[in-house]
Amino acid sequence: MQNRQYYRYPYQREYSTRIISSTAEGSEYHVVLANTIFYPEGGGQPADSGTINEIPILDVFETPDHRIVHVLPQDPGRGDALCKLDWPRRFYHMQHHTGQHLLSAVFFRVYSVQTAGFHLADDYATVDLDTASLSPELLKASELEVNKLVQQNLAVKSYFITAAECSEHSLLRKAPQVDSDIRIIEIDGFDAVPCCGTHVSHTGEVGMVKVIKTERIRGLTRLYYRCGQEAFKDYQFKHDVITSLAVKFSSSDHDVLDRVNGELERKSELERELKKLRHKLLQVEAHQLAGRAAGRLVVHCLPADFGIDSAPVLINEILSLGCYLVLIAVENRLFLAHNLQDSDLDCAGFVKELAPLFDGRGGGKKDFAQVYFPSADKLEGFVSAVAAMLDKVKDS
Ligand SMILES: [Zn+2]
Predict the structure, then answer these.
(1) Distance from the CA of 197 to the center of ligand 1, in angstroms?
(2) How much distance in Å is there from the Cα of 192 to the middle of ligand 1?
(3) What pLDDT score does 2 carry?
(4) What number of CA atoms fall less than 13 Å from residue 180's CA on the CB side?
(5) Structural domain for 40, as ranges
């Protein structure tokens, strides 16, 4: 653990050290330093980024024999290495990693819920809790407890202990996964856990912890959360959304949700009313069409704003007034139906036989079919062809 400067000085942003080795691996170089400020990926925390002798680091990982390898796109040479850490990114990791400790500690200490996993990425952070469900009330109460710990600005201590000392540690929440060099992170007097990541030195630096989403996943509850600036940016965004909505609905921030719910209810009512009126209009239309029908054939084009669903309604209304073959078009879709019981008319047959001549695609049954055409002209061509075929049937 001697060569892990990031453990001893997690706030160090620049560091001069020596290059031990630089080995070509394909198009990249694997570089080992005498000591490093760059955290290798592990324990749910991503690898640090930064530069070595101004060359950007692509990745940092730890080998099974505990060497830390820095992956570079070019050879940094031999001798001195000037290391510069991508500090904003690291601080984001430190805040969110410490935030995870606080969330996990509260859920365990206060609600006896153990943490099953943690994942930190550049744009989100998650904690998986070993519980299949979490009530909104409990979640809110936990957030409050976590933020109290932030405000108390407790020291976040890190130290190494032996396996024997582990069993004596009264605050230890989880058993270590290694049997030597066991690194403990302790939220002063409240919680301790073996951990290999980087953390802030006092809980106050976490700034704020806010859970923004929960998800049930394989019997666990996954919490998506944000800390510090990220939580604040989220608050800013949501504040903007709520104040804009409040202005739009001439309401206050606190009443806007009730207003929106009220408006949605009103919208549903209006939609039901519109559906009823449209049905009445279709009944009137059906009477007019049946009255004007030449023989048994009714052809009509419904305006597009009536919607596709209106066509079967109109067809049913027409067929309830007598025996007809009805062709109803809505945009480029045509519906065919008839109730001429003793005739050989076959709607599906018309579609199968004639639609391909007009690039139409569709199908159905003897008494009902629908077909879609690429243009209005093609649809009209098909309707004329059906009418001509009916005339032929009549004439013969
Ligand atoms: Zn940790």
Answers:
(1) 5
(2) 10
(3) 59
(4) 2
(5) 5-85
Cα(10)–Cα(382) distance, rounded to whole angstroms?
Answer: 76
Same domain as 347, residue 213: no
User: How many angstroms separate the alpha carbon of residue 194 from the centre of ligand 1?
Assistant: 8
What is the 234 CA–ligand 1 centroid distance (Å)? Answer: 24
Task: Give a yes or no: residue 258 inside a domain.
Answer: no
Distance CA 20, CA 36 (A): 11
- Tell me, yes or no, whether 11 and 153 share the same domain: no
Residue at which a domain ends, from 85, 107, 124? 85
Is 61 found in the same domain as 148? no
Quote the ligand 1 centre to 44 CA distance (angstroms): 9
Around ion ligand 1, residues with a beta carbon closer than 5 Å are 97, 185, 195, 197
- pLDDT at residue 11, as a whole number: 96
Chain centroid to CA 138: how far?
23
Query: What's CA 74's distance to the chain center, in Å?
Result: 37
Instruction: State whether 76 and 161 are in the same domain.
Output: no
Q: Do the Cβ atoms of 188 and 154 come closer than 8 Å?
A: yes
Whole-angstrom distance, CA of residue 319 vs CA of residue 322: 5
Q: What is the mean pLDDT of each run of 10 residues along the chain (396 residues)?
A: 84 96 95 96 92 97 93 94 97 97 96 94 95 94 97 96 85 81 92 94 97 95 97 96 96 94 96 94 94 88 90 95 94 94 87 94 94 95 90 65
Residue 253 lies in a domain: no
> Does some domain include residue 100?
yes
pTM score above 0.70:
yes
One domain for residues 94 and 240: yes
Q: How far is the CA of 276 from the centre of ligand 1 (A)?
A: 61
Cα-to-centroid distance, 308 and ligand 1 (Å): 58
- In single-letter form, the type of residue at position 229 comes to Q
Query: Considering its fold, how many domains does the chain have in total?
Result: 3
